[in-house]
Amino acid sequence: MRMVTSGIPVILAQPYLPGMVRRYLGHRVAGADIRRVDWRPGMGFDSDEAMLAELAGRECLLFAGMGSDGNTTARAGLFASLTRAGARILPAVFDAALLAEDVTLGHGTLVYPQAIIDGGVSIGYNTLIGPNAIIEAGCVIGNHCVIGANVILKAGTRVESSVLLADGCHVGEARSFPDRPFITIRRGVAVRDATRIRDDMASNVMIDASVGDTIRVFR
């Protein structure tokens, strides 16, 4: 895992906890070359061609939130545009986050302050780990995920790509079936309220208190 110490291009796209991002940049990236990307409702982040061409073949940092649509799609689209253009997006680990030595982070993944990530954890690219999250040993998290503040993933949990877990979710605990000891959250799940998840979740399911804590499938 490479730590950034010198000025490189930094893309800000409605970053999550912008004050923390400014603090990180002030402490870790001297003379950062800041680029701001606007949000276009219904269309996602607007990355202009000139910026993409300029970033081709260069290392950069990307701090992207979820936009007003509140899902992982916009972040994934911007990341894809940058990587197609040839940009090499580095991971960023904020001060006071604690990671075991054998943790694996993909390109562009962000780990916010006070997060704890235990041994043997693998996290894909462009995933955001919120402050005070606890990721226990052996968890696997896919690409383009958002793991909110104070989320707990118990040991061995598998989270597939493009999953959103709201602040305060608690995933996993001792299971009744010894041959299936771990929980898997399939691709595209969105949990928008603090929820205790005790069993596997199928792909493209949403839990949202605004619709009465029902579960529905995206179409």
Short summary:
It holds the Pfam family Hexapep. The protein is built from three helices and 25 strands.
Describe the structure.
The protein has 219 residues and is of the alpha/beta class. The chain has 2 domains: 9-89, no CATH class; 92-209, UDP N-Acetylglucosamine Acyltransferase, domain 1, CATH 2.160.10.10. It is 14% helix and 30% strand. The chain has 3 helices and 25 strands. It has helices spanning 18-28, 49-55, 73-84, and strands at 9-13, 33-36, 38-40, 44-46, 59-64, 88-89, 92-93, 98-99, 104-105, 110-111, 116-117, 122-123, 128-129, 134-135, 140-141, 146-147, 152-153, 158-159, 164-165, 170-171, 184-185, 190-191, 196-197, 205-208, 214-217. The strands form 5 sheets. Strands 7-10-13-16-19-22-24-25 form an 8-stranded mixed sheet, with no helix packed on it. Strand 3 and strand 4 form a beta hairpin. The longest helix is centred in the middle third of the chain and has 12 residues, at 73-84. The model has no long low-confidence stretch (mean pLDDT 86).
Strand numbers in spatial order across the main sheet: 7-10-13-16-19-22-24-25
CATH fold field value of the largest domain: UDP N-Acetylglucosamine Acyltransferase, domain 1
Helix content: 10-25%
Rg value: 17 Å
Biggest sheet architecture: 8 strands, mixed
Element string (H = helix, E = strand): EHEEEHEHEEEEEEEEEEEEEEEEEEEE
Structural class: alpha/beta
Tally of separate domains: 2
Let me know the number of strands.
Answer: 25
CATH class of the largest domain: Mainly Beta
The count of helical stretches stands at 3
* Mean of pLDDT: 86
List low-confidence stretches: none
Terminal Cα span: 38 Å
Strand % is 25-35%
> Which homologous superfamily in CATH is the superfamily of the largest domain?
Hexapeptide repeat proteins
Shape: globular
From the coordinates shown, what is the CATH architecture of the largest domain? 3 Solenoid
